[in-house]
Amino acid sequence: MNSFKKVLEGVSKDPSADVQSYSKLDCLEAGAISYASPMGCINIVAADQHKVSHVFFTEHFPFDDAEHLYRQYPVLTRVRELLARYFASEPINVCEIPIQVDTGTPFQKEVWHIIQQIPYGEVQSYQWIAEQIGKPKAVRAVGNAVGANPVAILRPCHRVIRSNGALGGYGGGLERKRQLLALEGHDIEKFK
Predict the structure, then answer these.
(1) Could you give the residue ranges of the DSSP H alpha helices within 30-173?
(2) Can you give the pLDDT at residue 141?
(3) Bridge partner residues of 160 (DSSP)
(4) Global pTM value
(5) What is d(CA 33, CA 123) in angstroms, rounded to the nearest whole number?
């Protein structure tokens, strides 16, 4: 089992675990850092030197911000810089960072590809995504695939809402989804 999976298991089993418990998991082998965003901790995991595999919000800072990781995994520097621009309200092109995810069904990957095409400052519905992939009745399955997205912000699942204007769900929590949409210029009062 790789060290990233060990971290995820540790987080899911004990959300109140302290940072010291993460350091025992040899997390640095995963090429992972924790980024302090204005909306909380974002963990970034490199798939290799040039691709990212996971970007997710968490309540913990389990990964060191070791300088050698930025040299070993240049993608971590690129993601950190992209996130800094994003949180400074600068529109970003999420396709700038190559993503390599070894998990996901073909259906999920199709949904994730469509999500990545949603431009900064726009929102689309789960229904719209289902129509884009040619499966207009698969709205619930699309919602599940959106929820399984392992690369938050870079695959902007926060830009997916319900057809009735409701926010729907978000792995990082609905308050973060509201904040991300507000950051992109949306009046969050219009979302139910």
Answers:
(1) 67-72, 74-87, 106-116, 126-132, 139-147
(2) 97
(3) 124
(4) 0.81
(5) 29
User: Are 73 and 31 spatial neighbours (Cβ–Cβ below 8 Å)?
Assistant: yes
Residues in contact with 137: Cβ distance below 8 Å, sequence separation at least 6, in sequence order:
130
Q: Which of 109, 83, 107 is nearest to 94 (CA)?
A: 83
> Who has greater pLDDT, 170 or 22?
170
pLDDT, tens digit (0-9, with 9 covering 90-100), for 142-181? 999 999 999 999 999 999 999 999 999 999 999 999 999 9
Please say whether the dihedral angle defined by the alpha carbons of residues 69, 149, 178 and 12, taken in this order, is positive or negative. negative
- Residues 54/149, Cβ–Cβ less than 8 Å: no
DSSP states along 1-27:
--HHHHHHHHHHH-TT--HHHHHTT-G
Give catalytic residue positions. 157
- Say how far apart CA 152 and CA 159 lie, in whole Å: 11
* Cβ neighbours of 89 (radius 10 Å): 10
pLDDT at residue number 72: 85
Fold of 106-190: Arc Repressor Mutant, subunit A (1.10.10)
Delimit the CATH 1.10.10.10 region(s) of the chain: 106-190
- Judge whether 148 and 104 are in contact, CB under 8 Å: yes
Distance between CA atoms of residues 100 and 150, nearest Å:
10
